Amino acid sequence: MLRRCVCAEWMKLRHSYIWMILMILPVVSVLIGSANFYMNQGVLTKKWYSLWSQVGLFYGEFFFPILIAICCAYMWRMEHHNKNWNMIMTAPVSKTGIFLAKLIVVGGLMIFVQILIFILYFLGGKLVGITDELPKELFGWLFRGWIAALTISALQLALSMRIRSFAAPIGIGLCAAFLGLGMYVVHLGFLFPHSLLTIGMGVLSQTGLSAGERLIFMLTNLSYIAAISIVAIHRMRKSDVEA
Predict the structure, then answer these.
(1) Which of 203, 211, 205, 178 is nearest to 192 (CA)?
(2) What mean pLDDT is predicted for residues 31-46?
(3) CB-facing half-sphere around the CA of 158: CA atoms within 13 A
(4) Could you list the residue ranges that cross the membrane (predicted)?
(5) 187 or 216: which leads in pLDDT
(6) Interatomic CA distance for residues 52 and 138, integer angstroms
(7) 101 sits in which H/E element
(8) What is the pLDDT at residue 239?
(9) pLDDT, tens digit, for every residue of 109-144?
(10) What whole-number distance in Å separates Cα of residue 234 and Cα of residue 238?
(11) Taking a C-beta distance cutoff of 8 angstroms, is the pair 145, 199 a contact?
(12) For residue 225, what pLDDT is reported?
């Protein structure tokens, strides 16, 4: 049943414009970050690490959370139109399958985005003249960024499920990104989903996480994903959704 739900969600995206957004925002992030690095090489002297600090600042702090919010809002867009909620709630499909299928599909989209940002980061570095080897931490940043993206995706899916407006959840996601930055600055980053993205991707600090911090990071994200999904699925089962 879950497999059928996932296939149905993929079919909705086949001819959509979401793929353009998935490619445009990472490109813009790398262009801005690479240009800023190129113009400030006298100060930014750590090559790949300095480039990541610039690309990651725009991508991890702003464009990636917005991209996640847009994708999650789009996943519920069809359900919020033409009273399709009535069909969904009466269909012989489990509510768990509906929500998890959307989360799985968004997770797949985020893998695509992370691979794309890796390619663009590499090309950007070569274009600005970096010849050193890539940072050994890079794949850890990308993987942990994807894990944190799943947490934010669960949260944004839950918001978009309840809010019919397409723009409102995206606005909330943008505000949450700024709040997450503040939480990170006051050393409470492990307590908030968007701060976890900052920590996981090494956006503001390229020093690696200790083994204990990596464990806390993974457990916190998994706990958030499980808790948010359980609450969202429970509301789908017990509450009438406004069609």
Answers:
(1) 178
(2) 88
(3) 18
(4) 16-39, 51-76, 97-121, 141-159, 166-192, 215-233
(5) 216
(6) 9
(7) helix 95-127
(8) 67
(9) 999 999 999 999 999 999 998 888 899 899 999 999
(10) 6
(11) no
(12) 97
Neighbours of 52 (CB within 10 A): 26
**Which of helix, strand or coil describes residue 71?**
helix
φ and ψ at residue 130, rounded to 5 degrees = -80, 125
What is the pLDDT, as a whole number, of residue 194? 94
Q: Check residue 41 and give its pLDDT.
A: 83
Report d(CA 17, CA 84) in Å as an integer: 21
CA distance 84 to 15: 19
Q: Which residues contact 37 (CB under 8 A, 6 or more apart)?
A: 44, 50, 51, 54, 55, 128
User: What amino acid occupies position 9?
Assistant: E
Q: Are 198 and 125 in contact (CB under 8 A)?
A: no
From CA 220, how far away is CA 57, in angstroms rounded? 23
Contact between 84 and 78 under an 8 Å Cβ cutoff? The reply is yes
Q: Is the pLDDT of residue 19 over 60?
A: yes
- Measure the CA–CA gap between 201 and 58, rounded to whole angstroms: 12
The neighbour count for residue 116, using CB atoms within 10 Å, is: 16
Phi/psi of residue 18, each to 5°? Answer: -65, -30
Is the CB of residue 199 less than 8 Å from the CB of residue 140? no
pLDDT in tens, 207-243: 778 889 999 999 999 999 999 999 999 988 876 544 4
pLDDT at 206: 72
Q: How many CB atoms lie within 10 A of CB 86?
A: 12
- Tokens representing 236 are 């789908």
Q: What is the pLDDT of residue 243?
A: 46
